[in-house]
Design goal:
- It is an enzyme of class 6 (ligase).
- It comes from Nocardiopsis alba.
- GO terms for molecular function: ATP binding; UDP-N-acetylmuramate-L-alanine ligase activity.
- Pathway: Cell wall biogenesis; peptidoglycan biosynthesis.
- This protein is an alpha/beta fold and 483 residues long.
- The protein has three domains: 95 residues, NAD(P)-binding Rossmann-like Domain (Rossmann fold, 3-Layer(aba) Sandwich), CATH 3.40.50; 201 residues, UDP-N-acetylmuramoyl-L-alanine:D-glutamate ligase (3-Layer(aba) Sandwich), CATH 3.40.1190.10; 154 residues, Protein-Tyrosine Phosphatase, Chain A.
- It has 15 helices and 21 strands.
- The strands form three sheets. A ten-stranded mixed beta sheet has the order 8-7-9-6-10-11-12-13-14-15, with helices on both faces.
- It is globular, with a radius of gyration of 22 Å.
Length: 483
């Protein structure tokens, strides 16, 4: 994969019948759903059938399993992701006909045109922050549109057109596609080195974020604790943009203080320069999630809503798919799933889990201190090679670690790069390299004991293993309940 060439969005009412290659994907299906709700004729194909395809079919989309030139039928616009190869028969047919071909991000950008668009970017936290913005605005009586990379627990959906002017979306920096969005308000959570299969290094990443700043029409909201994001804020101010900041730093416009774990919830206090402190609670663990909640509150404040009511709205957030998502409990062990696939994300989730377990034990002396068991599936050979040391350091925070084989995704295997590239660097001996899925499930179930938390971590298909671990734990404990 490489950086995409920016394409300016086309107004929704000019798209005509729109065909998606890879319609069942999280990003594509969300855009397609909103277009259908907006009155656009939609068709699409995917390599395999799925519940997502059938849901879109029920909404009126023409759905095809498998790729073929005739699937385009009378389409006027084709939407593709950067993962679509040039030899795809539908793409080849669209080029032969001279159809309008839009990258996924340009189709997403079309949804922002003429609306109060909010775009959330950053190396980490995009899905959670966009989800929190949506939930907070719903609490405030707004029915926003949204397109996120996971499903909201409260709605069961990953996208919706909403009613009115406001729409919140994720702005993906991984391949530069966020440069096809022109939001009224943008959030930058943090800026770190990642996706180095696309970028030459952190300097090029900063350059792209600087270009993104130029596309923000009104206000940039920045997580000031992060050095990379702070630099983006400085660039934005130099270019005359309105900048609002949040974080624990003393110079934050919206300052977070007194962050404290309460089981799997986190309490915090929000302080502004000209207001009284406001206490709040977010029902997910971790300081990083408090910062995500602060970003959502600042967005609501910038839209003119009452700050105290916005903080109240954070408590409505019940989570998003793959963001510390409970998969079940077996034998007294809770099993959660995390999308964490970068060392910073892994460290944040492991520290949050540890703080939650310590909170349970402190609040009830009869509750023994549980352990953290991590099942990690590396994502991409290049990322595994580049960040092997950092992955090892982050995973060493867990009490027990199982590392699977690398999930290749879009890459071909690299000689000498495996999950063992990481395990050989972990700073304790409670780590093991277990390549296969079934063996990994068995080993995790053997390692965990009552009171522990198991975290399945990674951007690949490790997410499918949570229920199997729950079943294995329950079977080992003789628990016949269907958790």
């Amino acid at each position: 994969m490489s950086l995409v060439r920016p394409t300016e969005p086309v107004p929704v009412d000019k798209l005509g019948r729109t065909h998606f290659i890879g319609l069942g994907g999280a990003g594509m299906s969300g855009i397609a759903r909103v277009l259908l709700q907006s009155g656009v004729e939609v068709s699409g194909s995917d390599a395999r059938d799925s519940d997502t395809l059938r849901d879109l079919e029920r909404m009126g989309a023409r759905v095809h399993v498998g790729h073929a030139a005739e699937n385009l039928d009378t389409a006027e616009t084709l939407v593709i992701s950067s993962a679509i190869r040039e030899d795809n028969p539908e793409l080849a047919e669209a080029r032969r006909r001279g159809l309008r071909i839009l990258p996924r991000a340009a189709a997403l950008g079309a949804l922002l045109l003429g609306r109060e668009g909010i775009a959330v970017s950053g190396t980490h936290g995009k899905t959670t922050t966009t989800s929190m913005i949506t939930v907070v605005l719903q609490h405030l009586g707004v029915d926003p549109g949204y397109v996120i990379g996971g499903k909201l627990v409260t709605t069961g959906l990953g996208a919706d057109a909403g009613v009115g002017e406001v729409i919140a979306v994720e702005a993906d920096e991984s391949d530069g596609s966020f440069l096809m969005l022109s939001p009224k308000i943008a959030v930058v959570t943090n800026v770190e080195a990642d996706h180095l299969d696309n970028y030459s290094g952190i300097d090029e990443i900063h350059e792209n974020f600087a270009d993104f700043v130029d596309r923000v029409e009104r206000t940039l909201i920045v997580g000031i604790d992060d050095p990379g994001a702070r630099r983006v804020a400085e660039i934005a101010r130099e270019r005359g943009k309105k900048v609002l900041t949040y974080g624990e730093a003393e110079d934050a416009d919206h300052r977070i203080t007194r962050v404290r774990a309460r089981g799997f919830s986190t309490e915090f206090t929000l302080q502004t320069a000209d207001g009284e402190p406001i206490d709040g609670t977010v029902a997910v663990p971790g300081r990083h999630n408090v910062l995500n909640a602060a970003a959502a509150v600042v967005v609501a404040d910038e839209l003119g809503h009452d700050l105290e009511v916005a903080v109240e709205g954070v408590a409505d957030f019940a989570g998003a798919a793959r963001r510390f998502e409970l998969k079940g409990e077996g034998g007294g062990v809770g099993v959660y799933d995390s999308y964490a696939h970068h060392p910073t994300e892994i460290e944040a989730d492991l520290r949050a889990t540890r703080a939650a377990l310590e909170s349970f034990s402190q609040d009830d002396e009869d509750v023994p201190l549980g352990r953290v068991v991590a099942l990690f599936q590396p994502h991409l050979y290049s990322r595994t090679r580049i960040f092997a040391e950092e992955f090892a350091n982050a995973l060493s925070l867990a009490d027990e670690v199982v590392v699977m084989e690398v999930y290749a995704a879009r890459e071909d295997p690299e000689p000498g790069v495996t999950g063992e590239t990481i395990t050989s660097r972990v700073g304790h001996d409670r780590v093991r390299y277990v390549p296969g899925r079934e063996e990994a499930v068995r080993r995790v179930a053997e390692l965990a004991r009552p009171g522990d938390i198991v975290l399945t971590m990674g951007a690949g298909d490790v997410t499918e293993l949570g229920p199997h671990i729950v079943a294995a734990l329950a079977a080992a404990a003789g628990d016949t309940r269907n958790d």
